[in-house]
Amino acid sequence: xxxxxxxxxxxxxxxxxxxxxxxxxxxxxxxxxxxxxxxxxxxxxxxxxxxxxxxxxxxxxxxxxxxxxxxxxxxxxxxxxxxxxxxxxxxxxxxxxxxxxxxxxxxxxxxxxxxxxxxxxxxxxxxxxxxxxxxxxxxxxxxxxxxxxxxxxxxxxxxxxxxxxxxxxxxxxxxxxxxxxxxxxxxx
Length: 188
Prior knowledge:
Elements: E1 38-40, H1 41-47, H2 51-57, E2 72-74, E3 81-86, H3 93-109, E4 112-115, H4 117-120, H5 132-144, E5 151-155, H6 162-174, E6 178-181
Parallel strand pairs: 3-4, 3-5, 5-6
Antiparallel strand pairs: 1-2
């Protein structure tokens, strides 16, 4: 993933380029914050003051660590913003899934931690989107995540489906901000 970690701005605009900031700082010029820095498994263990965390992560003696001693673990950053991602699914499913994946990537680059239930629950063996009862279950489960989300982000290049309308209406009813976004190179 090129571009990670880099300083980032909540508004999605590019940092000014003059950012020389450390963890916990904000650029005085543009307001950017540091990107998320990866840490190794060994560093994660060393930083933990909870024995149960150290024991859960540590590889038992005599067992080869499949990730090696310098495996990268991404630390949880309190700056991640939890969002519900809305994009089309039904219709041209293959193209809509590709679009939703691009939207997921866009969210991550902006510092958002997206939940995209239409990609998760429609996987083979989970729920059948062509069965109205199972579709309703998936939509309901996705909307339930909204109780924890800070915003709903709607990607509009491929149109707004009925399921997306339901998500937008739920966000408004819950008082959750709704942001509309587009992706370069995508059209209906």
